[in-house]
Recover the amino acids of this structure.
């Protein structure tokens, strides 16, 4: 609260004070005999102005501390007002403290519920993976009795279910990411090959060619989270690349970063939709026309997790020609230079 704003708030009081001095002067002027000398009257005016000004300065300091206390803890629930001076401030202080306490209790309850929900989802994902693995074993056991097409279809559908289950798990862990990651040096090529192996059935189903270009590079990252990010990127490329297309993965060493680019020969992305592909739930024209089962969570999760790891995920696309998703991973020298 600035002094100028305070004076504006006290304008009524200042006008009444000035009017009172004027009335006193007018009353003395009406007297037939001068009961107070002009010099004495001037001293009296100066004294009253000084007293009133001192009070205004004192009151301004009180008000300033009060408003600072109101704005100091805007984003913090762990505060308690205790600077009220006037009666109206005490009423407001009691009300705000009460509302703050209720809000804090509601927030704590919500956090407990969210933790319970995350624990339930994690437990559910763990439990659901057991029957999924059992189904895969049954398929493998009965493969001789099934045609190659049926066995492939069953494995494909099972893998899609597992993919969606992983999306649910990682989405639930976004807010608690800091509790479950470990940065170490890993071979980026090996992690990428594991992701490709996981999606082998999709490559075979659509007869898509995969190409790896660039040297073997080590990166500072979390293996589990990076695997999920790359899996989302590659899955997205596989969905929108037509049969007999090509997906090219290129590794490159920059001055303070390593880049991994996944380029496909798919349908591309319209320019006006490109800035929105990392928005939660956004499926776009391609999602509605080509892949109607798209959830709009894959690239959103990949982007969010990349940011939490200190990586950067960007995209370029040419409609009708393909899409390029580039993951930039800073090297250790980059972090040392900060």
């Amino acid at each position: 609260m600035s002094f100028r704003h305070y004076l504006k708030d006290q304008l009524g009081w200042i006008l009444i004070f000035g009017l009172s001095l004027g009335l006193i002067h007018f009353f003395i002027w009406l007297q037939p005999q001068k009961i107070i000398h002009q010099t004495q009257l001037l001293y009296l005016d100066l004294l009253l102005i000084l007293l009133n000004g001192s009070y205004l300065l004192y009151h301004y300091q009180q008000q300033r501390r009060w408003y600072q206390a109101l704005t100091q803890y805007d984003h913090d629930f762990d505060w308690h007002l205790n600077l009220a001076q006037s009666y109206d401030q005490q009423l407001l202080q009691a009300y705000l403290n009460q509302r703050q306490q209720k809000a804090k209790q509601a927030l704590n309850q919500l956090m407990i519920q969210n933790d319970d929900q995350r624990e339930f989802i994690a437990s559910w994902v763990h439990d659901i993976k057991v029957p999924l693995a059992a189904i895969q074993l049954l398929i493998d056991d009965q493969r001789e009795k099934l045609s190659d097409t049926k066995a492939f279809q069953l494995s494909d559908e099972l893998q899609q279910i597992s993919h969606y289950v992983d999306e649910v798990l990682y989405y639930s862990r976004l807010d608690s990411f800091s509790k479950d990651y470990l940065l170490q040096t890993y071979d980026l090529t090996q992690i990428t090959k594991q992701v490709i192996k996981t999606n082998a059935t999709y490559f075979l189903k659509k007869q898509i060619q995969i190409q790896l270009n660039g040297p073997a590079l080590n990166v500072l990252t979390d293996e589990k989270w990076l695997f999920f990010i790359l899996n989302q990127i590659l899955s997205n490329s596989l969905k929108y690349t037509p049969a007999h297309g090509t997906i090219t993965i290129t590794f490159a060493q920059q001055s303070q970063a390593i880049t991994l680019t996944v380029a496909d020969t798919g349908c591309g992305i319209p320019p006006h939709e490109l800035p929105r592909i990392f928005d939660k739930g956004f499926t776009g024209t391609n999602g509605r026309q080509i892949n109607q089962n798209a959830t709009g969570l894959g690239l959103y999760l990949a982007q969010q997790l990349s940011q939490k790891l200190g990586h950067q995920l960007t995209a370029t696309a040419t409609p009708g020609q393909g899409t390029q998703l580039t993951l930039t991973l800073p090297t250790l020298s980059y972090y040392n230079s900060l």
Observations:
- The first strand starts at residue 184 and ends at 187.
- The chain has three domains: 1-68, 108-172, 184-336.
